[in-house]
Amino acid sequence: MRELFPKSIVLGCALFAFAMLDSASSAADTVGECIGANERSIDLRKQGHFLAARRELAVCAASACPDVIQQVCAKRMAEVNDAMPSLVFDVKNGAGQPMTEVQIAIDGQPALAASATAVAVDPGRHTIRFEAPEQPPFEETVVVLEGERHKQVTAVLGPRVEQAPLGRIVVSTDSAATVKVDDKETTGGRFDASLAVGSHEVSVSEPGKVPYRTEIEIRAGETRMLSLSLMDEKRSGGTLWPWIVGGVAVAAGATVGGYFLFKPQDVTTTSVPAGKTATVQLSLGTGR
Q1: Are residues 171 and 260 in the same domain?
Q2: Angle, vertex CA 232, rays to CA 229 and CA 235, nearest 5
Q3: Which of its termini does the chain have fewer beta carbons within 10 Å around, N or C?
Q4: By three-state DSSP, how is residue 264 classified?
Q5: pLDDT band for position 22 (50/70/90)?
Q6: Taking a C-beta distance cutoff of 8 angstroms, is the pair 114, 106 a contact?
Q7: How many Cβ atoms sit within 10 Å of the Cβ of residue 198?
Q8: What residues make up the domain containing 204?
Q9: Which of 264, 282, 284, 288 is nearest to 199 (CA)?
């Protein structure tokens, strides 16, 4: 009996049908993976595992998944990202200086290099371990809430170094003047710095003006402010008392102020109790 179809045609049709079935099976598997990833992400988020939920959502939001599933997963991923808490780390040594060569491990996971970039974490309690060369490790436990972004975690590695007590001196004068306090010099007519307690030499100079020098003593936590204007050399007559157009001293919570004209050696400072307001008596003096 004559064959109605050559064997080659029959074989080709069989292979095509098999390929179609295999393709359909693969597509069905892909759709099943997409649906499964979406469902797992929902459960993981309910359990507070936001990072794992985001990984599952990345699977079902991929282009291999049907459009409708992609859209649902992309929306859920945006919601998870909005609710995802994060940590930032401020690591210093015992002297209060920032440290960069630090490894940070969160909940025993592989360590991260310290940086200014926020690190996403699941909400809840976390144990942070800090390690740096030649320093003992330091651990800190923190609790972070859902949606709490950029929560700062501060760590001090190594023994604390006691810093010398400081005060503050602020000098304001003409913008063309140079202000020098001890060995620190600034231009622009402004000096503002924290300095060690004790006596400090202050000088103000400007071309064509009579320079001014004095000594200011500061105590721990005290701010001394000096505002002055220098006199032209041709008007000074050989002796200058600089005009102080505003002066304020803040000591132990007290504020003292006034407008005055004085020679540095004529200034008398009265001790002011904490939280009180008083006036500093300044003698104008007579020429010597």
Answers
A1: yes
A2: 120
A3: N
A4: helix
A5: very low
A6: no
A7: 12
A8: 166-266
A9: 264
pLDDT one-digit tens code per residue, 141-198: 999 999 999 999 999 988 877 777 889 999 999 999 999 999 899 989 999 999 999 9
Q: Say if CB 40 and CB 55 are below 8 A apart.
A: no
Q: Tell me the residue ranges of DSSP E strands in the chain.
A: 86-93, 103-106, 112-113, 119-120, 124-132, 135-144, 151-157, 166-172, 178-181, 184-186, 190-196, 198-205, 212-218, 223-229, 243-251, 254-261
Let me know: does 52 contact 58? Beta carbons within 8 Å. Answer: no
Side chain identity at 223, as an amino acid letter?
Answer: T
Q: What size, in residues, is the chain? A: 288
Q: Write b or e for each residue in 202-223: b if 16 or more Cβ atoms lie within 10 A of its Cβ, otherwise e.
A: bebbbeebbebebebebeeebb
Q: HEC states along 198-221?
A: EEEEEEEECCCECCEEEEEEECCC
Tell me how crowded residue 88 is: count the other CB atoms within 10 A of its CB. Answer: 15
One-letter identity of residue 173: T
279 part of a folded domain: no
Q: How far is CA 191 from the centre of its chain?
A: 25
User: Could you tell me the CATH number of the domain that includes residue 99?
Assistant: 2.60.40.1120
Residues 66, 146: one domain? no
Amino acid at 64: A
Give yes or no: residues 70 and 102 share one domain.
no
What is the enclosing helix (H) or strand (E) of 34?
Answer: helix 7-46
- Overall number of domains in the chain: 3
Q: Does the pTM of the predicted model rise above 0.90?
A: no
